[in-house]
Design brief:
The complex is a heterodimer. By secondary structure, chain A is of the alpha+beta class. Chain A is about 35% helix and about 10% strand. Chain A folds into 3 domains: about 110 residues, Cytochrome Bc1 Complex, Chain D, domain 2; about 70 residues; about 45 residues, Roll (SH3 type barrels), CATH 2.30.30.100. Chain A contains 11 helices and 7 strands. The chains are: A alpha+beta, B mainly beta.
């Protein structure tokens, strides 16, 4: 005889596992495998532009511009400043466009749009999700590198490939960390903010990445100029203009004066149009494409 | 009045320190062995110094004042799990590592100075990074070695790794202008065995590989009875003798792990202590603790180097409390066996020849389908978390596990595997002790009994101040009197502890630190409140 509790558990199993499969076979099969043939238009700037046009004609009404959510459809691009994490991947998105989302108002576009057009929408969405390195900007990369180190004087503050200054962030991997438009903003817009700076629910203490320039007067009269890396009510952490870390106790500090930002934001004016474009072509190629996932734990440490 | 803690800032006041700045500003020195023989102000390397003694010269915290210790700061290491790494502290900056990442903290306040992250993010267990010559060296879980600027985290170089490299999480070792890293399987397919690999510190160029399983032409190949050699994984850092130019590493168990029938023989170089030439990677000598191992008694416990008079003769020795229950003393110049003594009460997997040190496994204790009870258990009489050696007390401190285990084979097939469990028998359950052993005789001098345990415990450190800092698996940390083992102070960290501790000082104030769960916690004595100390 079946124990009462076991019976209830088994019934629960039936309702939670078996029944939904019977009722919603389409939904159960809806999500495509993450892997599939690569999109032939991925990274093709012309196709991406065409994909944006098609997207705006077919998708914006529901999903909003740039996939950022509309009145009817959900957002496709979740956070404009960081690559997609954990959401549908390219192949799964293409599957939804082609076959629709059963049980929702999302129609199947297969037959309504040519498959090449669907692929171009996919390439456009990919470009929104990726960082600069997924869709590097056109230009003369070698010339852009020369601009970086010479006329642009970027190396005064920034390191790249183990060379350069220490007061600004390392740019070795910048194209894998930022979208192209954010790199352009950083070089052309005063007081620009990275989307997500404010109003985001933090899950961990972030590093302070504002790189504020300061002039510090110590109690003994000495002064230190540098960039603020972190601070709290009792201490300051500073990268000095002398290329040394200064870890200060506020009891030793008489005054902290803010200085104008070190980062020029008029590169679109101090460089020619061509120089700026080439610099962007260089910067949007600096980095390493992120691997899809961590490798299998072949080397999981035993004990 | 508190001094500010940066070396550069202090240089304003103390011109003699300018020399240090100049050295630090220079590029990475090629063949410079930068770590002091004993850790003091800094804890610059996993084991405190090349010799892994974990014997700090700091004396501020003593048995007399340890009762006044208090929490100083705490830092949550976001995105990781159960930390196993030992942070290192250099020039007031603490570097906390995981695979593909570093968090650099102000070691006085815990404030983040910079973070380095490289894709893919992973919470896989990792055991440390190396800092030397103003650079931080880390391995990635996809086979790269990276050099970062220690001041900013900027990437100086990235080495794609040598042939077939896939690294385990043990800390890299910077020695004689090279960065030594390690792995468990020297291959992308099959079982290529454990390995040590060296890269050039300046450029990241690949230099050499030593493999823990013999290659063609090596007579050691005959110790496998015709079976293809496998195993010998290497997953914890080594020791280095800058005078002998030898690095010392322990290798893991042979494969298959539990069934020895298919691989008759000693199965070299599994379960060995090996000495390699730092410049060439050539094997200078080896000593096998557990021949023909069927209990997973890896020899990966930390190897401690010391100079001592042993039986009337000055010796450069290598000390190891091995997982198999014996405490070994070897002459590290040539691998000569000097002594082995059991450091736990029950050892029955086999015996050790007192003249040669050769392990003689008892076939009656091979794992079986029915299950075989053996002492110590596979978790070991101790494991990889670090012991400590205090030359002043002459004591070798180790987290020891009393008890036995049961190994049960899945089938009688020659490569059948199993896992291991605590012995179900009375008085064979695992019990952890912080144990002090006379470093020369192996006699147990005192025990501090830890409360609750289900596996091996964390590592230890000792100081010239006369204390042992003793964390426990279940989250308690204690300060013990190095001479007597008496508990002087304790604190509940609120999470499991597996890592080994460190100590350092800033502006003359000593800190004790430990990774517990996903937090770094630090402790120190109260500092006098000065008139100038106020929130502006």
């Amino acid at each position: 005889m079946m124990h009462g509790l076991t019976k209830i558990l088994l019934m629960g199993l039936f309702f939670s596992l078996v029944l939904p499969l019977a009722i919603l076979p389409a939904q159960a099969q809806r999500r495509a495998e993450p892997s599939g043939p690569p999109n032939p238009f991925a990274g093709n700037s012309q196709a991406i532009t065409q994909g944006e046009l098609i997207y705006n004609q077919s998708c914006t009404a529901c999903h909003g511009p740039n996939g950022g959510a509309g009145e009817i459809g959900p957002e496709i691009i979740h956070n404009l400043s960081v690559p997609l994490r954990g959401e549908l991947n390219d192949n799964q998105i293409l599957d939804v466009i082609r076959n629709g989302a059963p049980g929702t108002v999302m129609p199947a576009w297969k037959g309504k749009l040519a498959d090449d057009d669907i692929l171009k929408i996919g390439a456009f969405l990919h470009s929104l999700r990726g960082t600069a390195i997924d869709n590097p900007l056109p230009g003369n990369v070698a010339h852009g590198e020369a601009v970086f180190w010479n006329k642009g004087q970027c190396g005064t503050c920034h390191m790249l490939g183990g060379r350069g200054g220490l007061r600004g962030p390392d740019l070795t991997n910048i194209a894998a960390e930022r979208k192209s438009n954010l790199i352009i903003d950083a070089l052309t817009k005063a007081n620009h903010r990275v989307y997500g700076d404010g109003g985001v629910h933090l899950r961990a203490l972030p590093a302070m990445d504002t790189y504020d320039a300061v002039h510090i007067t110590l109690s003994n009269g000495r002064t230190i100029d540098g960039v603020l890396l972190n601070q709290d009510g009792y201490s300051l952490q500073l990268m000095g203009d002398d290329n040394q870390l200064h870890l200060l106790d506020r009891s030793q500090v008489k005054a902290v004066a803010e200085k104008p930002p070190l980062m020029p934001t008029d590169y679109d004016k101090r460089l020619t149009k061509e120089e700026f474009a080439d610099l962007m072509a260089f910067l949007t190629r600096q980095g390493r494409k992120a691997p899809a996932a961590a490798p299998a734990p072949r080397n999981a440490d035993p004990d | 009045m508190r001094e500010f803690s940066t070396i550069a800032a202090r240089a304003f006041l103390q011109p003699s320190l300018l020399v240090i700045i100049v050295t630090l500003c220079g590029s990475a020195a090629a063949a410079q062995d930068s770590y002091p023989a004993q850790p003091g102000k800094d804890w610059p390397i996993y084991g405190g110094s090349y010799n892994n003694q974990r014997y700090s010269s700091l004396k501020e915290i003593t048995p007399a004042n340890a009762r006044n210790l208090q929490g100083k700061w705490m830092y949550h290491v976001e995105g990781l799990q159960g930390l196993e790494s030992v942070p290192v502290v250099v020039n007031g900056v603490m570097y906390v590592s995981g695979y593909n990442r570093i968090d650099a903290l102000d070691a006085r306040t815990g404030n983040v100075i910079w973070r380095f992250r490289r894709q893919p993010a992973t919470a896989a267990y990792q055991r440390g990074a190396a800092v030397a010559h103003n650079r931080v060296y880390i391995t990635t879980n996809d086979g790269h070695v990276l050099a970062l600027d220690a001041r900013t985290g900027a990437q100086i170089w990235e080495s794609k790794g040598g042939p077939k490299a896939s690294f385990s999480g043990g800390p890299p070792l910077v020695a004689n202008g090279k960065i030594l890293v390690m792995g468990n399987r020297f291959d992308t397919v099959g079982d290529g065995g454990g390995f040590i690999q060296a890269y050039d510190e300046q450029t990241g160029d690949y230099r050499w590989t030593w493999r823990a399983i013999p290659e063609k032409g090596d007579p050691a190949l005959d110790t496998w009875g015709g079976h293809a050699p496998g195993g010998g994984p290497i997953w914890i850092g080594g020791a280095y003798d800058p005078e002998l130019k030898l690095v010392y590493y322990g290798t893991g168990q042979p494969n298959p792990q539990w069934s020895g029938k298919g691989r008759p023989g000693d199965n070299l170089y599994s379960d060995c202590i090996v000495a390699l030439d730092v410049d060439t990677g050539k094997l200078k000598w080896y000593f096998q603790n557990t021949p023909h191992d069927t209990h997973d008694y890896d020899s990966t416990e930390i190897i401690v180097l010391a100079d001592m008079t042993f039986k009337g003769k000055p010796r450069k020795v290598a000390l190891q409390a091995n997982r198999n229950g014996f405490y070994y003393i070897l002459d590290r110049t040539n691998g000569e066996f000097l002594q082995a003594t059991p450091f736990v009460s029950r050892v029955d997997w086999g015996t050790v020849d007192p003249k040669t040190g050769k392990g003689l496994p008892d076939p009656a204790h091979e794992p079986t389908v029915k299950g075989t009870i053996t002492c110590p258990s596979t978790a070991g009489a101790t494991n990889w978390p670090s012991p400590a050696y205090n030359p002043a007390t002459g004591l070798f401190y180790v987290t020891a596990t009393e008890g036995c285990g049961v190994n049960t084979l899945a089938s009688s097939a020659p490569d059948s595997e199993t896992s291991y469990l605590e012995s179900p028998r009375d008085k064979e359950a695992w019990q952890l002790y912080t144990r002090a052993i006379d470093a020369k005789t192996g006699a147990i001098k005192w025990d501090y009994k830890q409360v609750r345990s289900n596996h091996y415990g964390p590592g230890l450190l000792t100081t010239e101040g006369g204390i042992v800092f003793s964390p426990e698996q279940f989250g308690q940390v204690s300060v013990l009197d190095a001479k007597t083992g008496r508990s002087l102070w304790h604190y509940n960290t609120g999470d499991l502890i597996t890592a080994s501790p460190l100590t350092y000082s800033i502006d003359g104030h000593q800190y004790l630190a430990i990774a517990s769960g996903t937090n770094i916690l630090t402790f120190g004595l109260p500092e006098p409140v000065t008139a100038g100390e106020k929130k502006p």
